[in-house]
């Protein structure tokens, strides 16, 4: 019995999904297929400037599902489709990731081995400007080995003043900044 393999090439899958996702003004951040028992899990991460709502995710999910039903890119094996937005723990790897996190605190590990923690003030296609302890510092993306947004429990939502990076007391109401 000849059967198509249940393995789907990630590059082909992303090329297939990208135009579908872009119809909704979103960026395809990642598409990944992993085994899940007898099935496979197709996880698709989408995002856009200004964030993405649950309604947006539902619209994208319906469009992807319809396109997958009409094509055999996933092969014959059963799969589950999961569409969501990337979590805050996603590494900042592209200029748009930096741009979408302006005003957020980031920890950066440089290719040289140094580490920098600062708040993103602006982001261009080549570099980000951070506020590091009150001083501006430009970090070229080419110099970044790893960068991640830091979760802040001591910063009220919408608060653009600078909290102490070294810590401080958590507000009694427990408010946190949401992206």
UniProtKB/TrEMBL annotation:
Keyword vocabulary terms for this entry: Cytoplasm, Ribosome biogenesis
Pfam family, one: RimP_N
Coiled coil regions in record: none
Compartments where located: Cytoplasm
GO cellular component: a single term: cytosol
Annotated stretches, region: Disordered: 155-179
GO biological process: ribosomal small subunit assembly; translation
InterPro entries with a match to the protein in the record: Ribosome_maturation_RimP, RimP_C, RimP_C_sf, RimP_N, RimP_N_sf
UniProt domain Ribosome maturation factor RimP N-terminal: residue ranges: 17-89
Domain of life: Bacteria
Primary localization: cytoplasm
Ribosome maturation factor RimP C-terminal domain span: 92-153
Reported function: Required for maturation of 30S ribosomal subunits.
Sequence similarity: Belongs to the RimP family.
HAMAP family named among the record's database cross-references: RimP
Protein name: Ribosome maturation factor RimP
Species lineage: Bacteria, Bacillati, Actinomycetota, Actinomycetes, Propionibacteriales
UniProt gene name: rimP
């Amino acid at each position: 019995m000849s059967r198509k393999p249940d393995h789907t090439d990630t590059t082909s899958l992303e090329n297939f999904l990208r135009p579908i996702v872009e119809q909704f003004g979103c960026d395809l951040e990642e598409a990944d297929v992993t085994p899940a028992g007898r099935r496979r899990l197709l996880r698709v991460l989408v995002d856009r400037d200004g964030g993405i709502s649950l309604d947006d995710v539902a619209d994208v999910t319906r469009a992807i599902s319809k396109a997958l039903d009409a094509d055999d890119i996933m092969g014959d094996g059963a799969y589950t489709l999961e569409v969501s937005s990337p979590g805050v723990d996603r590494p900042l790897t592209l200029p748009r990731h930096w741009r979408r996190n302006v005003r957020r605190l980031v920890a950066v590990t440089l290719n040289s081995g140094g580490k920098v923690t600062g708040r993103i003030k602006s982001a261009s296609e080549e570099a980000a400007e951070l506020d590091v302890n009150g001083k501006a510092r430009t970090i070229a993306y080419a110099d970044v080995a790893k960068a991640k947004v830091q979760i802040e429990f001591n910063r009220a939502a919408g608060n653009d003043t600078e909290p102490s990076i070294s810590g401080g007391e958590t507000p009694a109401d427990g408010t946190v900044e949401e992206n």
